[in-house]
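Hey, resending since the last one bounced:
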Amino acid sequence: AVVSTQSTGELREGVVIVDSDGNKLGQSITAAKRSIIATTFSRICIAAPGMLMTPVIMEQLEKRPAFKNMSKLKSCLLQTALVGSFLLAAVPFGCALFAQTQSIAVDDLEDDLKRSILEKDSSLKIVYYNKGL
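The structure tokens again:
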């Protein structure tokens, strides 16, 4: 929900498309959609290890005598520490899944943008955009 809320402007106006030299060529909604999909996927990959592994670890720990009588507060603190540990490890991985600058074929862009780009440089086949966070 947060990604879609933050990306409303991108979906309406598109993301900036540039050539390999960084010259602005226009704005693309198609690239914005790809960017949102990549960002959503990477955020799921960041959250998934902690969300999936913490319950498994806690279940195994709670079977041990030392943890059977653990107070709710200590259990909550342990779970928070576990999730935090997984996040510390997963955030760099999740951010590295997709390069910050993504490429897209000119042919995959909206027709009007594609026409505009090819009028400026008919040899241009690949353009770039910033994926965002």
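Helices lie at 2-6, 8-13, 29-62, 65-68, 72-96, 111-120.

Sorry for the duplicate.
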